[in-house]
Specification:
Layout: H1 3-22, H2 24-35, H3 46-55, E1 58-59, H4 60-67, H5 71-83, E2 87-92, E3 95-103, H6 105-126, H7 133-156
Antiparallel strand pairs: 1-3, 2-3
Helix pairs in contact: 3-4, 4-5
Length: about 160
C-alpha cells in the first residue's frame, strides 16, 4: 500500500470518527453524563457555559459564533445559566448597547466540576488501553487540533 493510500485511509477513518463524535446525539449523551450532579447545567446549556469558559467574557453574538449556536438560542440558554447564578450580564465596555456574559464564581466552580467529570470519564474509557497508547493518542490529537486551528487562523487572517 502506498503512503498516499495509507494516509488517505487514515484520514477517512479520522474523519468518520470525528463525524460520529460531533453528532448531536453523541454530544447530547456526553453532555448529559457530564452535567448530572452539576446544579444549573444540563445537556442544552453545557455548550454555552463551556464556551464562555473557553472564550472568556463575550457578547451573546460573539459567544454564539464561537460555539456554533444561533444567537437567540445562546441568549435563551444564557438566561437559564444566569438564573442559576452561573453567569452574569454586564454592560460591554466597548459598546454601551451590548451586554457581556461572564462566568460567576459559582460558574467557575461548575466548570471545574465539569472538566473534572470529563477527565474522569475519559480516563475510565482509556483505562484498558495498552500502556503509552493514551499518551500517544493525546499527543496526536493535540497536534491535529493545533494544525486545524492554525489552518483556520490562516484562512480567516
Amino acid at each position: 500500500m502506498s503512503k498516499t493510500t495509507h494516509d488517505s485511509a487514515s484520514a477517512a477513518r479520522v474523519a468518520a470518527a470525528i463525524g460520529a463524535l460531533t453528532l448531536r446525539a453523541t454530544r447530547a449523551g456526553l453532555y448529559g453524563r457530564l452535567t448530572s450532579g452539576v446544579a444549573g447545567v444540563d445537556a442544552t446549556t453545557y455548550p454555552v457555559l463551556s464556551g464562555l469558559a473557553r472564550v472568556g467574557p463575550a457578547t451573546a453574538t460573539k459567544l454564539a459564533e464561537a460555539i456554533g449556536m444561533d444567537r437567540t438560542v445562546t441568549t435563551r440558554y444564557a438566561t437559564r445559566l444566569q438564573e442559576a447564578g452561573l453567569i452574569t450580564r454586564r454592560p460591554d465596555p466597548a459598546d454601551a448597547r451590548a451586554t457581556r456574559l461572564a462566568l460567576t464564581d459559582e460558574g467557575e466552580r461548575a466548570i471545574a466540576a465539569l472538566r473534572g467529570a470529563m477527565e474522569s470519564f475519559l480516563a475510565e474509557e482509556m483505562a484498558t488501553w495498552p500502556p503509552g497508547e493514551a499518551a500517544a493518542f493525546a499527543m496526536r490529537l493535540e497536534r491535529l487540533t493545533e494544525s486545524l486551528a492554525q489552518g483556520e487562523a490562516d484562512r480567516s487572517g
